Each structure stands twice: as C-alpha cells, then as structure tokens.
Amino acid sequence: MTFSRLVRYFGENQCILKGRAVHARITTSGFHLDVYTNNHLVSMYLKFNLFDDAWNLFDRMTERNMVSYTTLISGFSHMGLSEEALLGLRLMVFDGFDPNQFTYAAAISACTSLGAVKIGKEIHGRIYRMEEELGYVVNNCLINFYGKCGLLKSARSVFDKILEPNIISWTSMFTVYCQSGEDMKGLKLFAESRKVGIEVNEFSCASAFGAYASLENLKGGIQLHSLVFRCGVGLDQFVITSLIKFYTRCGELDSARQVFLEIDNPNLSAYNALIGGCIQLGNPREAIELFYKLHSLGLKPNDRTFSSLFGAIVDMVEIEVGKQTQSLILKFGFMSCTFVGNAILDFYSNFGLLEESMRCFEEIDRPDTVSWNTLMTGRIKTGHHTEAIGYLENMLIEGFEPNNCTYSIILNISGDLPSIQWGKQTHCRILKPGFNSDVVIGSALIDMYSKCGRLNDARKVFDCLISKNLVTWNTIIIGYAQHGFGKEALEIYNFMQQEGIKPNDITFIGVLSACGHMGLLEEGLSYFHSMFRDHGISPRMDHLGCLVSLLSRKGQTERAYEFIRCFNEQVDKVVWRCLLSGCKTNKDFSLGKYAAEKILSIDPDDTSAHVMLSNIFAEAKMWEETAQVRKIMKEKALKKDCGYSWFELNNRICSFGVGYVPDTAFSFQYKE
Fold this sequence. Notes:
Elements: H1 3-12, H2 16-28, H3 35-47, H4 51-60, H5 66-78, H6 82-94, H7 101-114, H8 117-130, H9 136-148, H10 152-160, H11 167-179, H12 183-195, H13 202-215, H14 218-231, H15 237-249, H16 253-261, H17 268-280, H18 284-296, H19 303-316, H20 319-332, H21 338-350, H22 354-363, H23 369-381, H24 385-397, H25 404-416, H26 420-431, H27 439-451, H28 455-464, H29 470-482, H30 486-498, H31 505-518, H32 521-535, H33 541-553, H34 557-566, H35 573-585, H36 589-602, H37 607-619, H38 623-635, E1 644-649, E2 652-657, E3 663-667
Antiparallel strand pairs: 1-2, 2-3
C-alpha cells in the first residue's frame, strides 16, 4: 500500500495517532513526499481539526496543485474558519491556479458565514466571467449566500437561471424565503416544487412547518403533517422537532404532546421544543417536569435547555429551584456561556436579587448587549435608576452598541424619573440607526412622552408608526387616560376596534380609567360587562378598582360595594382605598369606616388609611374615635410620606422636599 493510500485510509477511519506516525516515519526516512501524498496529509489534519498542522504542512509544500488549494479552502470553510478560507482563495489565484466548482462553493460558504456581501459578489462575478456553466453545487451555494445576506431578489435570480433545479435548489430557495420572513412566498414555492414532482425531504418540511407556525396557519400545518407521514419522513427527529414547535406556536399544546409521545426515543431537541412550548403557553410546571424526565433518562441538557428552563422557573416564582438549577449548570460547565448566563441573570433580576445578578454577570466570559440590558432592567424594576444609568455608561465606554432593547430601557428610565430632555436626546439617537420605525421602540417612545406629560409628542410618534401592535395601542390609550384625556383615549379605542385589533385586559384598564376621568358611568359599566361578554376577558383587580372608583365618584358607593362583594377574588387594599375615597367625598361615613377597617386588616401600618379614617371620624364629629386613631398613629410613629418636587437643569435631575436641602439625584450624559 502506498503512503498516500495509507494516509487516506487513516484519515477516513479517524486514526490520528497512526496517521501522525506515518507522517513522522516519512519525514525521518528522508522520503520525498509527492503532491498527492501531501494533499492527503493536509486533508487528514483538517478532518481532525488540526488547523495549524494543516496550514504548516501546506506552507512547506514545494509543489501544489488545484487539489491542494481546494482541500485547504474546503476544510477551513467547513470548520468555520471563513477568513482563513478566503485567504486561501486569494493565495490560489495569486499563484495562478483557477478555482473549480468545489473551490468556489467553499469560498461562497465562507462569505455566507461572514456576511461578506461584497466579496461574495466579487466571487460570483469571477465565476460568471470564467465559467461557461455553473454547476448545482455553486448555484445552490449562491442561493444560500444571497438569501442569508438578505438579498432575496439576487437569490431568486440565481434560482430562476437554473434550467432544471434539483431538490437542493428548491429547498435552498424555499428555506431562505422562510428564514427572511417571506413565509407566503416560501410556501408558494413549496407548492410549485410539489407540482413539478420534487419530493419533500426533512429540510423542506421543517422550513414549511416554520412558515405555517409564523403565519399561525393551523389548517395548512395539519395538511402538511399528513403529507410528511405519507412520504415517509414523519419520523425524522428534525421534522418531529419542527412539528412540536409548529403546534405550540399555534396554541395546540395537546397536539404537540401527542407528537412527542409518538416518538420512541425523543432526542434533546424534541424535549427543548416541548419545554419551550409549555412555557410559551403558560404551563411552566410541565416544563420543569419535562426537564426532570430528560435528566433522569441520562440526556445531557444544553444551553438552550437551561435558558428555557429558567423561563419556567421565573413564571413559577421558584427561587430555590432556580438556585439548584444554577448548581447543575456549574456541574455541566455552562456557567460561562453567554446564552445561559443571560438567562440566570434575568432570573435573579426578576426576583430583585441584585447582588446575585451582579455576581452572575461577572462570571459570564463574554457579556454581550443582552447581558448589559438584563442587568439594567433588574435595577430599573427595583427603583435603582442611578445604578442602571451607571451600567449604561459602562456599557457605552466598553464599546457595546445599543440595540432596540437598550433604547427601550433608556426611554423607560426617562419616563420613570421623568426626564424629558434625556428622553429627547435618546429619541435623536434612535433616529440615526433607523430604529424609529421599530414597533418596540415606538411603543417605548410613546410611553416616555406620555409619562413626561408630552401627549402631543406621544401622539406624533403614534401616528408616524407604520406598524402598530397591541402594546402600541394600549400605551397611547393609557397615556391619555392617566392624564385625564378620557375623550381622546376612547377615540383611540374606537380606532383600534375599527382596525380589527383585539383588545386585552390592559386595554380595558385604560378604557375604564378614561371613563372614570370623564364621569361616564353608563359607558364604563358597558365596557366592564363587554370585557367578558364580547372578548372573553375575566375582570382583574385593576378593572374592579377602576369601576369602584367610577361608581364612588358618582356617589353610588353602595353599588360599588356590591361589585366588591360579588367579586370572586380576595380584594386588595387598593380597591378598598378607591371605595374609602368615594365614601369620604360623599360623606358615607359608615361604609367609609368599614372600608378603612378592611384596609387596616390587610396592612395595619397603612398611613393613608389611618389619616382618612381619622378625617372621617372628625367630619362625623366622633372626637373620641378621632383621638384614638391619632394615638395609634403616634404610637406606631406613622407619618405620611413626604412629597417631592423636582426640576431638570443641564441634564441633571434635582429633587427636594419640605425641610430638605436640594439634592442632585441623577446625572445623565451620553458617552460616544
């Protein structure tokens, strides 16, 4: 057996030690290696991911041919070393060798990985000039390249020029449509491929299920489900995972479970898909049980498993389970993984465990923009705006570019404080990268301007948004309602109905609040009853509070109490406070006394309830009772919270209260 055949044999059979031994024997024996043996050695080292060895050997080769370069370029491209692959192509052309179809395919794949549009187009131009006909391999790589780079017209142009597209060509074109969000075009092409006799495979089916899931087209997906089983690809694990994701995306958790149970030995991807679906559809307990099951079966969780699991733990408010899971993550060695670290960081931030979240952040090897965003969000939720601003400054100093979520966080801070000047500066920065058309950013801008009392600016942003989601509509409705512009809030709600947007429970909080500000009792009652009757939304505590406030303001305190009494949940003190306020205004002392006692039974140290009860007794000339309440307040050292005023000057928020020296609380400055 010749050296070249021996090296090739060891490379194909994963015998690295024997392959190295042969190479060493050849070198020490002084035998001159021909180009064919060297090519096999380079190929062997690349198969074992020994890139330095492959490159050093290639560099020492006195004789090279087209196969030498193609082997090196293909190996680097296949292993993800895209820049090295393109360097190899440059050397090949510089040395006077003409690339072949396989060389071009490897180079185009490298451009796809890097997103190198310009270089990819240059290679395509060279192919067009030098080659008489493009083969399937190159054409399919070009379709994938243009599609992944978002140039769908160019991808379709390449596809249309193929005289007889094969199954890979059809699948590639169909997949890039779906991955670019053009689901309808993708499904149309899928239907065309079926008409010309192209058989379905696991890749085309997975993309089709993804498209149906994005469109939430349950009927179309069910038809495809029948087709894949008739065609014999229904038991492929790749297809099974796509099916589970499709059914959960369409809200059919039972069907997803059925698909999962029909598999003899579900793999980790199937478990991950069902765990994610359970969390998405509000069943976190089942998600945690699935994790326990896969762990007991000996399947090793991956980063996606753990990141999904923490979503379930947050929903279940299971702090101890979260800490135990973190220990398991440390055991498996995923703690430094950015994807998993961000999930743990979000878990601690959601529960206000700020020290733990900071320690988790420091343990992430390569924190990204999501890590910084999560860290800042946790501080904002707990009212630590100064720390959040400090982290924002550190993030910008370290060279991280803000994304749409970052800007949303900054706008949240601007609205919470509120700081209109900082909000305006943020708005200007948003315009530069073109984020202003993003629906998330648009909603955050509306919220910021509303909280700062700039409703005209909020309305301008709302009217300029091309795409509006339910959050956008809710934000402008609540913004108007909170500032007493009930008429405008109800007008927006009517526009929303005309656009066919289905309201949710948040929408009706804004609508009922608007009715309360305008004193529209009958309209408010009509909207309240319409929630369940027309939209299937069960009234929450917030809705009850709005209705009780509306009825109490109109002097119907007894009717308000009846709504409270008939409510199917334990009423919180906010609702009783709405009733108490109405009773005080309308001099319903007996019911007001009862409401105050209810508040104090929930929170014995509620200062405002003591004050209002004292005032009710005083107005009823019940002096002994008034003195008793004030005595209790004195014994408990209860005082009303001091009110603060603030002003904004030179990007600084200064706040002060009665008896306090003005204190600069926050300082804002963007650092380029």
